[in-house]
Amino acid sequence: MAGSVFTSALEGMKHVKSENGEMLTKHFLDVCKQLLPVLDKFGAALSPVKSDVANNISRLETKYSSNPSEFNLLYSLVRPEIEAKTAKSSSSCTNALLWLTRGMDYLVELFRNLHDNPDWPLSKACTEAYNKTLKKWHNWIASSGFSVGIKLAPERKKFMEIIGETADLTSDIQKFCTNFSPLLEENHKFLDSVGMDNLKA
């Protein structure tokens, strides 16, 4: 049994928190990485989202790898930048965590739409998720690019066949949305506490 495209991410989520309930850098990034192949299944429709997510994971991983013990906890990547007042720089880890979290918000919302609205075409699920999550942070150019990309979304039935070699797909989607949302919420709370959650593109 191969499991669904979410199997690895769901397994990974069990290890994201330390014994003290703190978010662990490597495990959080690993879960996000497990979702890149899911983004691939959308074809060209979500390639901007995929490249953004992949770049942000890569920036955070590079920093983590420079000192795994110092940066073991996810927010330890951000705190030095807040203190040094470099957090708002477009190349900061803070910025990467913010946009990675937003990209993941979008994915959760998209799959929630697919789960809750079986009659929606994929393009509608993508657009509604975008309007609810990323749109308010994007400038006109990014929004237009997104609208154009969505027209390339595959047909829903075909897409669901590609991602679902298993009967458990529906319950996996629900578990993914239910289990991943609180982790993203925690990131937003932390970013809000350091004045970074409302940063626009």
From TrEMBL:
Pfam families cross-referenced by the UniProt entry:
GLTP
Keywords assigned: Transport
Q: Does the keyword Transport apply?
A: yes
Q: What is the species listed in this Swiss-Prot or TrEMBL entry?
A: Rosa chinensis
What is this protein called in UniProt? Putative glycolipid transfer protein
UniProt domain Glycolipid transfer protein: residue ranges: 24-164
Q: Which domain of life is it from?
A: Eukaryota
Q: Does the keyword Cell inner membrane apply?
A: no
Q: Which InterPro entries does this UniProt record tie to the protein?
A: GLTP_sf, Glycolipid_transfer_prot_dom
A GO molecular-function term, please? ceramide 1-phosphate binding
Q: Tell me which SUPFAM superfamilies the record gives.
A: Glycolipid transfer protein, GLTP
Q: Name one GO cellular component term.
A: cytosol
